[in-house]
Every structure is written in C-alpha cells, then in structure tokens.
Specification:
The chain is α+β, with helices and mostly antiparallel strands. Helices cover about 30% and strands about 15% of the residues. Strand 5, helix 4 and strand 6 form a beta-alpha-beta unit. Helix 1 packs across helix 3 and helix 4 packs across helix 5.
C-alpha cells in the first residue's frame, strides 16, 4: 500500500478490539517515531497493550472505546517564551512558537498515522483533557514540553464513516488566468484527504506566480494541527521535488523535509 492509498483508506476509528498489535509491527512504528522525533525535534512516545491507554482521561470530543495503544504527540514550543501563556491547543494563539509546534505535530503525527495504516492498523487523533497534569502517566514530559494530541491505534471494531470534503476551489487559490498545474492539483487532492477536527478543513493553499506555495489557516478548531496534516498530504501528493514553500517572513515555510 502506497501513501496515497493509505490516505484514501484512513478513517477516524474510535472503537478498537482487544486483538494485540503484532510486536514486529510495533517495532516498525517505533522506528518511525524515532525518525519523526529526530527530524521534527519532537518527543513522541508510544504505549501498547494497556487496558486503557487514555488512562481514564476524558477526550475533548468523540467517544473512544477499547483504546489499548496510543502515541503521545509531545513537543516543546520554539522560542524562550513560547511555553508561557498558551494552552496546548489554543486555536486563537498568535505565538509563533506555539503555532510552529502545532503544525509540526500535525505534519509528523499524520506521517506516523499513515505508516500505521500501511501496516494494517486503524487510527484516530484525539485530544485528552488534563493530559499534561495526569497522575502516573506512561509518557514523560521534559521541561517546557506538552502533549498536543494523542494518536490512538489498533484493530478497529467497526468500519469508518463516510468522508466529506469542501470543494477544491474553496481550499486553494491560484493566479488569475493560470491553469492549475497537475502537481498542484494532485497535492490538493491529497490535502483534501487529511484529517481535521470535525472535518472543517480550516486551511488554504496558495500557488504563486513564481511556483512557490504558501498556506494559511482559516476559521476552525485546532486549525494549525490540521494544517500540518494537510501539508504532509500535499507534499506526498504533489511530489516533494515539486513543492517549494514560502511565507511572508523567511520565504521558506518548510515544516518537514520538502527541500
């Protein structure tokens, strides 16, 4: 199964069976976690075979059952003051370090989720309330770190629901008079398959006349995490060799390895 096929097959599954995940599969996932942590400057951590990997904590939305395996998507905001004055999923924050963390968690968390799908597993993103102050957690937080989201995984107890998407015209902009290049359309079609909170797709991709691409969040829950997921999908669909990110500050908007 290639990554595009994994994108098409991926659904948010919130109910899991008691069937354990094969240890060889866990080893592959751990290797992927190690690679994501190294490349993204993150601290993702995995737990498997728990009675309740969510430790009884409430989820921000959605009801989960049978979650025996999960990855805590942990990182530290960039910048000396980034960890102060913001919550892990503050969707209104203007703090650049917090925004960068949420996008990196989305980008690398989705990379990990798709690898799990390739390995025959189901997944779902979740927000655990009070995760950063939980008693006796299986994860470890270094100074300044926080759990942004968690990724449940395992063998699904039921199939996923119907996927819905906004029209492509609402999710991207291109210069007047320009036909959408094949690579950009392929990237957008992949981005439209990315998970976002409540399927709100709070992102906008812009193709500029010089061939660079910029992104921005639109109104929606946990928009920066969703944008990170969409950017990973876009790179895969478009071909990383075709994607040249830019923003209004540095001219380079790379979240992952798009160079």
């Amino acid at each position: 199964m290639n990554l595009i096929e994994a994108m098409e097959q991926r659904h948010a599954i919130r109910a899991y069976t008691d069937e354990p995940v094969n240890p060889a599969v866990l080893d592959i996932l751990q290797a992927e976690i190690d690679a994501c942590n190294q490349e993204g400057g993150l601290h993702f951590q995995m737990a498997a075979g728990f009675e309740d990997a969510f430790l009884g904590l409430k989820t921000h939305y959605g009801r989960f059952t049978g979650v025996h395996n999960a990855v805590a998507l942990i990182g530290r905001p960039v910048g000396d003051d980034a960890a102060e004055g913001t919550t892990p999923n503050d969707t209104t924050t203007t703090d650049a370090g917090e925004i960068a963390l949420q996008e990196r968690v989305g980008y690398y968390g989705e990379r990990l989720a798709l690898r799990a799908v390739q390995l025959g597993l189901e997944t779902s993103w979740a927000v655990l309330d009070d995760a950063n102050t939980a008693e006796h957690p299986w994860w470890c937080l270094h100074p300044g770190e926080k759990i942004v989201w968690v990724l449940a995984f395992g063998h699904g107890a039921r199939p996923g629901g119907r996927r819905r998407s906004k029209p492509i015209e609402e999710l991207c902009r291109i210069p007047d008079g320009m036909a959408i290049p094949d690579w950009f359309r392929a990237g957008m079609e992949a981005a439209m398959l990315a998970p976002t909170s409540l399927s709100q797709q709070p992102f906008l991709f812009t193709l500029h006349e010089d061939g660079t691409v910029s992104t921005e969040v639109t109104e929606g829950l946990f928009a920066h995490v969703g944008l990170g997921c969409a950017k990973y999908h876009f790179e895969v669909g478009a071909g990383r060799e075709n994607v040249h990110w830019r923003d209004t500050t540095s001219g380079e908007e790379a979240v992952g390895a798009a160079d």
